[in-house]
Amino acid sequence: MLVGAGLVGAISFIAPWGFLVVKGSQLASNAMPLIVVLFFLILVGLVAPLLKRMGMGFSRAELTTVYVMMLVGSVVVVTGLTGSLLPVITGVIYYATPENSWNALFVPYLHPWLVPQDAEAVRLFYEGLPRGMEIPWGAWATPLATWITFVLVFYWTTLCTGVLLRGQWVENERLIYPLTRLPQAMIEEVEAPGRLWGGLLCSRLLWLGFAIPLLVHSWNSLHNYHEAFQPLLLNGYISLLHGQVGVPVRLNFPVLGLCYLMSLNVSFSIWFFFLIGVIQEWAYARLGVQLGQGDIWNSGGSSPLLLHQEAGAMAALVCFVGWTARGHLKKLWAQARRGAAGGTEILAPRTATGGFFAGSAAMVAWLALTGLDFYVALLLVIGAQAVYVGLSRIVCEAGLPGCQTPMVPQAFITRGFGPATLGLHNMTGLGMSTVWIGETAANMMNAVVHSLKLKSGEGQADRRLPWALLLAVLVGIAGSVWFTMRLAYTYGGINLHSWYFEGLPKWPFDYMASVYNSPERTFVPRLLVTAAGGGVMTLLLLLRQRLVWWPLHPLGFPIAMTYTISSYGWLSILLAWTCKGVILRYGGVRVYRMLTPFFLGLALGEFFTACLWVFIDGYFGVQGNTIFNF
């Protein structure tokens, strides 16, 4: 736990520095954070063997605990919390101008507990402190305490949800959790006498795969230092149908490597539904079919028709998850009523069940107390929990490191009720909720369910694990908030990463202002499209359950046109599907297993290279060299 807390502390400094100052790869932005993999490689490959030689080696369970602490702690340091919290609660004040009318629309409805009340402290956060002036911590005390309290309750509710679903997903349905394969393989045989490294780290195929992204990305990175290194093109743009449809292409080594572990029908379905989505986009453009204005708050920039269609599919998936888990949940409920022990769970059934309902009620009460009407607060909490359960189910089964929801619940609520019904106080509160449900690729639910899976193979549940996870969260929040504040007040936030200090703070309130200024009567058509998407998803789920030969897996439908797939993943998923299909057909399972280290090496090599060049670029003052996103 001490080692895990120390590494989380290091992550809480390095990840904000790498992204906000160096403006390089996002080191902690998805379900398998780069910096976590780097630190675990160093721990398993260098530190643990040295300690083992000295007679103080880590056990497999201890190494797993360190990994899950880093996994959970990394969620809060940039995209998961701190990078959203500090800009969003100040941006609505700093960027308010006579032109956007935010001072009239939103600022009067900001609850004093949620934002700093000192306008000068906010201005200096974006423009930097004069020399010799101290950070005005007093202006931040109340909003930070208020938000962190809410976030801790939210994370507790998430942990309880993960515990309630773990037995169904791990033991009953036996989901494969592809993202756990790399850390598990790195610590295989770590306790064997006379072995300093597991079999994976001794594999030549692993290091062959590792070398490919290391050499390719290092060559491209050297272009920033000398023109003799002409970059190798790894991404581009395909124009189809006489320019009416554009398709981004990108060779993404980690997605290629990790999706090799994905079931063939899942990988096939993702790229297949992506191509169907491209065709739909073209057809809608040719026919002039529209569904109101675009929703800038949602993923991928696709048309509202596709986003609502996929949102309906996500809702159907969450309902399916609840329906298939009903027997398991009934059993846990009966155990909770009897006060039975937890068995293989890290929380007793009564604690997990009571914690979920109490935490959810506390979240609704907090949101209502700080400005939202009760019905809006209730819908937002239910929508957020549904989104995170759906995303974590997709990641657990598909193994995508970056996965986003097609539509956040704030947008659905805003379009559904409209500004006349909601009023500006609710629209302001929904904009502020971007703090905890905005960029959904890095979320606590993914970290929790993967942590529980990694700890599931140890026999009796480790009841100390919740305390280890709490320690990781507290260290991550404290370290990242303190360091991000110091960076912003030292350099001026507007001189750091433009997205986090300009794009993100404006994003929710630009959306709310556009809806308020141009209200639409399109919710019924939007709802019909959403219902149609849910109907198609239900049919796909039924076919998947009833017909063994059915080739399309439903998981591809809700995410096919989201940003992480359309811009970063679909081509590499197609390549992974092709490679795995050819290998299994002509080489069989033996060759597939033999080549697995090579594909794991592609992911490990890019994660290592991305982190390496953040440090190199930071040392030499080079900015903007982004090797890996999502």
Report the span from N to C terminus.
28 Å
Rg from Cα? 24 Å
List low-pLDDT spans: none
The total domain count is: 1
Query: Which structural class matches the secondary elements?
Result: mainly alpha
Number of helices: 23
Helix content, binned percent: 55-70%
Integer average pLDDT: 91
Shape summary:
globular
Provide the succession of SSEs.
HHHHHHHHHEEHHHHHHHHHHHHHH
Q: In which order are the strands of the major sheet placed?
A: 1-2
Number of strands: 2
Outline the biggest β-sheet: 2 strands, antiparallel
DSSP strand (E) fraction?
under 5%
Give a description of the structure.
This protein is mainly α and 630 residues long. It has one domain. It contains 23 helices and two strands. It has helices at 2-21, 34-53, 60-75, 82-94, 102-105, 119-127, 137-172, 181-186, 204-222, 253-259, 264-287, 304-324, 326-338, 349-369, 374-398, 409-432, 444-454, 465-491, 498-517, 523-546, 556-559, 563-586, 588-620; strands spanning 235-240, 245-250. A two-stranded antiparallel ribbon has the order 1-2. The longest helix has 36 residues, at 137-172. The radius of gyration is 24 Å and the shape is globular.
Q: Secondary structure elements and their pairing?
A:
Layout: H1 2-21, H2 34-53, H3 60-75, H4 82-94, H5 102-105, H6 119-127, H7 137-172, H8 181-186, H9 204-222, E1 235-240, E2 245-250, H10 253-259, H11 264-287, H12 304-324, H13 326-338, H14 349-369, H15 374-398, H16 409-432, H17 444-454, H18 465-491, H19 498-517, H20 523-546, H21 556-559, H22 563-586, H23 588-620
Antiparallel strand pairs: 1-2
